[in-house]
Amino acid sequence: MVRLPAPLLRSLPGRHLVGADTHCPYCALQCAMTITPAAGGPPEIAGRDFPTNRGGLCRKGWTSAALLDHPERLTTPLVRADDGVLRPASWDAALGRVAAQVTATRAAHGADAVGVFGGGGLTNEKAYQLGKFARLALGTSRIDYNGRFCMASAAAAGNRAFGVDRGLPFPVSDLDGAHTILLLGSNVAETMPPFVQHLRGARESGGLVVVDPRRTATADFTADGAGLHLQPVPATDLALLLGLCHLVIHDGLADKAYLADRTTGYAALARSVAAWWPERTSRTTGVPVAQLRETARLLAAGARSGGSYILTGRGVEQHVDGTDTATAAINLALLLGLPGSAHSGYGTLTGQGNGQGGREHGQKADQLPGYRKITDPAARAHVAKVWGVEEAAIPGPGLPAVELLASLGRPGGVRMFFVHGANPAVSAPDSTRVVDRLRSLDALVVCDFFLSETAALADVVLPALQWAEEDGTVTNLEGRVLRRRAAVPPPPGARSELWIMAGLAARLGAPSSFSDDPETVFTELRAASAGGPADYSGIDYALLDSGAAAYWPYPSGGTGTPRLFLDAFAHDGGRAALVPVAPAATGGHDAVTRDPLFAGGALALATGRLLEHYQSGAQTRRVPELAAASPGARLLIHPAAAAARGIPDGGPVTVANARGEAHCTAEYSTAQRLDTVFLPFHFPGLQGANLLTSSATDPVSGMPEFKTSSVTVAPGRVPAGQGSTGHRVVTGLRAGARGASDPGPVDMAGALRAAGARPGTPATERGGA
């Protein structure tokens, strides 16, 4: 067993616990919780009554406090010494080294040779100040964030159709009384378990329709007359939606009055779907005609009675045609008259904890605070005035994430890179190439609270605060702004990222001001967002502390907007746009052999999340209960597909394509299609699903192709040194070989304790539905 050197880890004296009402650090449901002191251990977590979770928490939420006193917590800056080893340093020395490197890089290669990669888990304050820091303190246009891997296609489709993007343009509790819910590409029973209680009304009416190539835990909720499970061929979601649009039009189910009053483009849309008659759609997708017709009928019936909702998730959006697929889902909703209705709607399920707010205030390559376009002269002038700089001081648009990562270390590209709240060494597509790019940099600076796989490659690691140690705000999947409150004093040595940015900005002589006080930063964010699509100007900490619901847009002197589009859409003229879309003539996905039982034939690889883990797993793989429940990557494969390849249940398996090779354990599952295998993306090293995914991107949103890759699957071996925890990290890296020295398995938490979920968890995991 290899452990991090003791100086890199924080000591664990008892800290005074103050307790607080706050929100979970994980997904965008932002379940309310209370943290209370506990003698001799981490604080206790309790679910708190709140519209999204109603007191329930998932297993990740129940165990979230385990990381606050984790023995691997970083609290000392680490700087790579001349011998190539990360060694402790003072804050002054670490920040001085970073500032000197920025100055040298800009002098030698220009400001755009410095890049920034943010995260959808950062608070609104940190996301806002990171965008400002990049553009003013660093002077670079080269900033994007990991939300490009999550919400980009849905956001592009929402802006295209409605003129603005908010994940759910209605409170999640509106779903409770729905007659019909069409859920495409989202396994909420595992990714956000408390959400499933909001599906109860649709289940009871027999109107829950789940679209997923896998028979997931969410799809199981459609059993016993509760609804339908549509199981299409992978990568045919767009064709499925075009076929449903065809049926709604040609079976007389469209809301003609709504279309005439509130939309544009109907005639062109009707022509574009004319060729997608049910039989053709069925041949393309594998979904029976009867199920297609029943889905259209349920949606139309719900729209006229108890309400219908169409919800999309990453399963239909993380494709090279993700924007068009999300657009087709919106077209279907508009044909039925759902968006802007008091009892129906369309929405997309934001994934990351602050995935909504994180993309509104300046982390994104093409955006300024308030969801303003960086190319809009009026937007630039407004933000420049708030910042106290000339408009010309704000750089133009940068590069979306995949292009940004591909530029690292290349001539004319980014030579120095900052990473905040992300782990692209694991989470980015075609991750072998991404790690190569990270190694090729002149300097890599990572802010984190653990030595993640990306931080292990860095030249400077700056230890940041965790969610329960700092104040701030986040915006949940409903567009509701929430208060995060400090409940635990931070350990000595760790610093807020606001403090880090302010310190570096001062050393770099940046224009404008950079505060380390969250409320001061939020006040400036309010001013910068004023008048923009995501207007926060009427929201302040006092309002949030009062418990009032604050949905943006919330203009100064006005009120919040829990339900968008009731009166008008955000386009000029107030109408939504029906936008014709079609599958690319040449396809866009890896070819998938349609004879999955042919020995050596290609299968479709789908990637996704497990109940126990979150994102790249850098946090959840360190929680003993979660790591014990899901210690490593397991490839779900249909028994017949496995038998044809000589793969035993529980045996080692190699999953490969031209981009890479992953090694994991096979698990038989009749919930899989014969032509599809599933691999979770939470695990690093040779278990990494993103060794196999493509860096091809959607031309509109920049979203990578995560969900459908062609792979071969064969009996394999578990490589030496790949432990049962599925938790590997590289330490002690030597000069000239960043990341090349791999000492083998590192059990970062010590011996993992097998432990059950917290009391009450099983019922909550089932969502109470």
TrEMBL record:
Limits of the 4Fe-4S Mo/W bis-MGD-type domain: 17-70
UniProt biased composition (Low complexity): 749-769
One record GO biological process: respiratory electron transport chain
Alphabetical list of InterPro entries matching this protein: Asp_de-COase-like_dom_sf (IPR009010), MoPterin_dinucl-bd_dom (IPR006657), Mopterin_OxRdtase (IPR006656), Mopterin_OxRdtase_4Fe-4S_dom (IPR006963), Prok_molybdopt-oxidoreductase (IPR050123)
Domain of life of the organism encoding this protein: Bacteria
GO cellular component: membrane
Pfam assignment, any one: Molybdopterin
Disordered: annotated span: 736-769
Keywords linked to the UniProt accession: 4Fe-4S, Iron, Iron-sulfur, Metal-binding
A molecular function GO annotation: NADH dehydrogenase activity
The protein's name: Molybdopterin oxidoreductase family protein
